[in-house]
Amino acid sequence: MSNENKSIHEFDFNLICEYYSSVERQGPGSPETTIKALSFIDNLTSKSHIADLGCGTGGQTIVLAQHLQGEITGVDLFPDFINQFNDNARLLNLQDRVKGITGSMDNLPFAEEEFDLIWSEGAIYNIGFERGLREWHKYLKTGGYVAVSEVSWFTNERPSEINNFWNDAYPEINTIPNKVTQMQNAGYIPVSVFIIPETCWTENFYAPQVFAQENFLKKYPDNETVKDFIENQRHEERLYNKYKEFYGYVFYIGKKI
Ligand code: SAM
């Protein structure tokens, strides 16, 4: 397999964590998109419990905390992200109701029906969309919500270059109607579905990485893994710019029946 087609999972995780710690978002998204998705969720109060799974350093968690009153628990596999998450919460004086814990989204330390809302931006792919929706269902109260963003096809057909790239990186990529059916079959009423704007990729995700990439290459000038990783990121960005009418991130919001 050429390096350009290497999955992100094959690179050294510590290097990836260090790289992504230097940018605010670890996936495509924006404060406006988080707030829009939140607008479809009702019945949240200061007593509500919210989980943000695959929270990263917490870019979207902080936005959530600033727009709702309940308690938020962020979960991420990587301790460095969680340390940064908790530092950010303290800096913003949100530490009393925003807490990050290290853990895996496929083995959560939660009780059944503990949450009013489960959030996950650009992260459910780690467990798989269908599996995540099914397994997380039990942690929600009846009438609670799940809100996840997930890479999805916008069309039934697409050029083979991008089709092969994504089928290799994430074989569960699917069209929006098929994802909605999966959500319904997992026990949720699909409440809202919307495509997140292109600027969430170009301005919020890729643009800050230009600087991060230059810094990273300067810091590790002789490291082949770093060079491969950066080339991989740039390749993914080039593909996005070339084929963005065929795919993107979609927010899926469902209500537990
Ligand atoms: N939600 C953040 C955002 O939108 O900026 C981060 C998205 S990033 C693309 C995916 C996140 O999932 C990373 O922070 C990664 O560490 C985390 N992750 C990967 N596998 C995980 C697992 N099994 N359990 C929890 N988090 C995981």
Automatic annotation (TrEMBL):
Q: Is the keyword Methyltransferase assigned to this protein?
A: yes
Which terms are listed as keywords in the entry? Methyltransferase, Transferase
Would I find Transferase among this entry's keywords? Answer: yes
Q: What's a single GO BP term from this record?
A: methylation
Q: Where is the Methyltransferase domain?
A: 50-144
Gene Ontology molecular function: any one: methyltransferase activity
Any one Pfam family match given in the protein's UniProt record, by short name: Methyltransf_25
* Protein name (database record): Methyltransferase domain-containing protein
Organism lineage string = Bacteria, Pseudomonadati, Bacteroidota, Bacteroidia, Bacteroidales
